[in-house]
Amino acid sequence: MSSTVGKVIRCRAAVSWEAGKPLVIEEVEVAPPQAMEVRVKILFTALCHTDVYFWEAKGQTPVFPRIFGHEAAGIVESVGEGVTELKPGDHVLPVFTGECKDCRHCKSEESNMCDLLRINTDRGVMLNDGQSRFSINGKPIYHFVGTSTFSEYTVIHVGCLAKINPAAPLDKVCILSCGVSTGLGATLNVAKPPKGSTVAIFGLGAVGLSAAEGARIAGASRIIGVDLNPKRFHEAKKFGVTDFVNPKDYDKPVQEVIAEMTDGGVDRSVECTGNINAMISAFECVHDGWGVAVLVGVPSKDDAFKSHPMNFLNERTLKGTFFGNYKPRTDLPSVVEMYLRKELELEKFITHEVTLSNINKAFDYMLKGESLRCIIRMD
C-alpha cells in the first residue's frame, strides 16, 4: 500500500446520483488524508436501514451525488498529519459517530455523544476544510455520516475509527459498526438486566434482535419479542427470544398483555422501532418499583411521548440511548473481543452476501424485508 501514500487513488465506488435511483459503480478519485484523517481500504461493508432511509430521501435534506455506507471493516492505507493512534496496516471499524477524546462528553464516563464528531447526516464534506475527498472528473461526490464505505477506499476522521484485533474476521465484525452494537449496548450498557430477569424487546429487526442477543448474554430467563410481523418470530428464537406477542392479536393495549404474562410487568424493556405508541407501551409494560425501559428507535419529528406521571412516581425508569452507549474508539474493540471469545454470535445476523458490483441487490433484499444484514464484498 505504501506506493499510494500521499497520492490520489482511483478506485471503484457505488455512487448514488439521485434519491431512490439504483447506485452506479463509478471510478472515483480519493484524495490523500489531511490532518487528523485516515485513508482506509474497505474490504467489507454492510447495508443498514439508515443507508436506505437517506438514499430514499423522503423526509430529510437530500445531499447528492453521494457515497453511502457506514457499517464496514477495513485496513489503514495511510494517515494524515497528527494521527498517532493508527498506522498503515491496522485493522479498523469505521463508525458513523466519533470520539475526539477531548470534549466534555468524551471525558465523561457516562456519555458517548462527542461534541466534535457526533453524527451529522446533512454534512457531506470533511470537517478539516469543508471539502469532499471524493471526486469524479474534478466534481465533488459527497460523503455520508463521515464514513462513505461503499467505496474501495475512503477518508475518515481518526476519531471515527476503532482499531481492532487483526485476528477478527472482517467479514463478520463489520456489522458491529452500527446496528448490532446499538441494540447490544442498549441492553448490556443501559437496561442492564440482572441474571434471571424478564426482558421485552419491541421490534425484531436487526437492532431489536441485537438487543435480544444482549439479553441472552446477560442471562435473562425470559425474553418476550413484540412485533407486528409474525414471520419474524421463527428467526428470533435463534437470538434467545422465548415468547412472542403480536399486538394485532389482542383487543387491549400490548402493555396490559405483557403485564398479565409477567405478574405485573417485565423487569426491562428495549424499544427498537421508533414508533411512538411502541415507545409508550415499552415504558408502561415494565414492573413498578424497579422496571427500566430503554428507547432506541428514532421517532418522527412531530411525535410526543405521553404517559401518566404516576407511572414514573411508581418507580418505573425511562432511558434513552445512542449507539448503545458505546464510545467508538474506547469500547468497540472489547465488543470484537466478545465475538472472538464466542460470547457474542454474529453469523446469525448475516443473511446475504453480494459483491460491490451487485450492491443494488442488497437494497432489494432490505426493501423486501428479506435480509437482516447483507455483506458487500469489495473484490
From TrEMBL:
Keywords carried by this UniProt record: Cytoplasm, Metal-binding, NAD, Oxidoreductase, Zinc
GO CC aspect terms: cytosol
GO MF terms held by the record: alcohol dehydrogenase (NAD+) activity; S-(hydroxymethyl)glutathione dehydrogenase [NAD(P)+] activity; zinc ion binding
Annotated Alcohol dehydrogenase-like C-terminal domain residues: 206-338
InterPro entries for this protein: ADH-like_C, ADH-like_N, ADH_Zn_CS, GroES-like_sf, NAD(P)-bd_dom_sf
Location(s), subcellular: Cytoplasm
Known catalytic reactions: a secondary alcohol + NAD(+) = a ketone + NADH + H(+); a primary alcohol + NAD(+) = an aldehyde + NADH + H(+)
GO BP of this protein: formaldehyde catabolic process
Family as reported in the entry's similarity comment: Belongs to the zinc-containing alcohol dehydrogenase family.
Name of this chain's protein: Alcohol dehydrogenase 1
